[in-house]
Specification:
Strand content: under 5%
Number of domains: 2
Radius of gyration: 25 Å
Number of strands: 0
Shape: globular
Distance between the termini: 40 Å
CATH topology of the largest domain: Growth Hormone, Chain: A
Structural class: mainly alpha
Order of helices and strands: HHHHHHHHHHHHHHHH
CATH superfamily of the largest domain: MFS general substrate transporter like domains
CATH architecture of the largest domain: Up-down Bundle
Oligomer: single chain
């Protein structure tokens, strides 16, 4: 039954002369019947609830499994950087153990590129199953590898599973919950942050090989995560912010966004990888330096929950440079040996909201937000692979202070491109 409205008692004599679609004051035509129109959204609180027809595609067991997978991914990813002093001790100083971070992220980059190239030809549910199996097998290989070459190869294959699962599950969460998708994506990555906190703590108390074996054993029971693929096999729920962009020529601006994302992702990965090495060179014990690496990831986890609430009234084009300026100051403080232990968590707190805000900023100015976000994710993977290798090359034989100063240099470059993007994105007159 159509919605009823109260109508004033007026004479209908003038109604037939009203043009179709015209609005008159205080009168509603009774004949002929109005042409079908788009349904008017209800103002009730239930309006934001996803339609029941979509609920079966987002099974609770799949959501829980996805959270568990991201916890394991966070723990292993963060532990690789924290374990660099241990790896150098186990495999010998002749090996450039810092390469493991770059090779792991190279595997992630490869998986991201392959999934992007395959597109719809990659069936979501089998793809998720294969990625999970690859990750579990590779982490088991890391646990039993007989030498450095095999360990590096296994870490690269583990990166394939890591990158593919991160891309696929983030996409599924972004599409499967309608207007609640942003909240769910943040929750998913917050679980990753919790794992990233606990991974370095566990590395400081146990063998990295045992941690790799634990990652394998924890990933295997999460096979129900394959059900998240059902979300990608159906059209996503409409979101309130799915509107066409008003930016006519995004190409030059998009380059600035992509470089900003590349530098930021590489900076985040490099801090997680090299802070424990700096602390050890400054005189910390091996165990203490490794466990202290969790401070940065704790700052990241807290920052993603707290900082956006404090700066929610700021536009993205203003908040991103502000976050990077404060992070730059924290990284410069980390060059002081006695302040490094507090400076890195502070840097994590400041850097935490940068990437989500850049993603939202990019989506708001791009003609095709989904494509822009995919390309930005790929650039972030490139940064994860390349920047830590550059940091290793620049700091391998230098004093401990060279590490935070190099990281601060990358932060300054990221700030530069963010400022250029801010100036390039000028509002257009209506």
């Amino acid at each position: 039954m159509p919605e009823s409205t109260s109508q004033p008692e007026t004479a209908p004599t003038a109604l037939p002369e009203t043009p179709p679609g015209a609005m008159t004051s205080g009168t509603v035509p009774s004949a002929p019947p109005a042409p079908p129109t788009q349904p008017v959204p209800s103002a009730s609180p239930e309006a934001s609830v996803p339609p029941l027809s979509h609920v079966p595609y987002v099974a609770k067991a799949a959501v829980v499994s996805a959270f568990c997978v991201f916890f394991v991914l966070g723990a292993l990813t963060a532990s690789l950087g924290a374990s660099l002093p241990y790896l150098k001790q186990e495999f010998g100083p002749g090996h450039q153990v810092g390469r493991i971070v770059s090779f792991y992220n190279f595997g992630a980059l490869t998986a991201t590129a392959l999934i992007g190239l395959l597109g719809r030809r990659a069936r979501p549910r089998p793809t998720i199953t294969v990625l999970l199996a690859v990750f579990a097998a590779a982490t088991a290989g890391m646990a039993v590898s007989p030498g450095w070459a095999w360990y590096l190869f296994a870490a690269t294959v583990a990166g394939l599973g890591y990158g593919g699962l991160v891309l696929t599950l983030n996409t599924a969460f972004a599409r499967g919950f309608g207007d609640n998708s942003v909240v769910m994506v943040n929750r998913l990555n917050a679980v990753f942050g919790i794992g990233a906190i606990l991974g370095p703590l566990a590395t400081g108390r146990t063998d990295i090989r045992l941690l790799s074996l634990a990652a394998c054993l924890l990933a295997l029971p999460c096979v129900l995560v394959r059900r998240m693929g059902a979300v990608l096999e159906h059209p996503g729920l409409p979101r309130a912010d799915d509107a066409p962009s008003r930016l006519r020529r995004p190409s030059a601006v998009m380059v600035l966004f992509l470089v900003t994302g590349l530098l930021y992702a590489g900076l985040e990965t490099s801090i997680g990888a090299w802070q424990s090495t700096q602390l050890q060179r400054s005189g910390w014990s091996l165990q203490a330096a490794t466990m202290a690496a969790s401070g940065f990831w704790a700052g990241m986890a807290v920052g993603r929950l707290v900082v956006p609430q404090l700066t929610k009234r700021l536009a993205a084009r203003t908040s991103v440079p502000l976050y990077l300026v404060t992070a730059l100051g924290a990284l410069l403080l980390a060059a002081v040996p006695h302040l490094a232990i507090a400076a890195y968590p502070l840097a994590g707190l400041c850097l935490a909201p940068v990437l989500p805000t850049v993603i939202a900023w990019t989506s708001g100015v791009a003609d095709v937000p989904q494509r822009a976000t995919s390309v930005l994710t790929l650039c972030c993977m490139v940064g994860n692979t390349s920047v830590p290798a550059v940091v290793e090359t620049l700091t391998d034989t230098r004093p401990s202070a060279a590490i935070p100063l190099t990281l601060a240099g990358f932060c300054a470059l990221c700030l530069l491109f963010a400022v250029l993007a801010r100036r390039a994105r000028q509002p257009r007159p209506a």
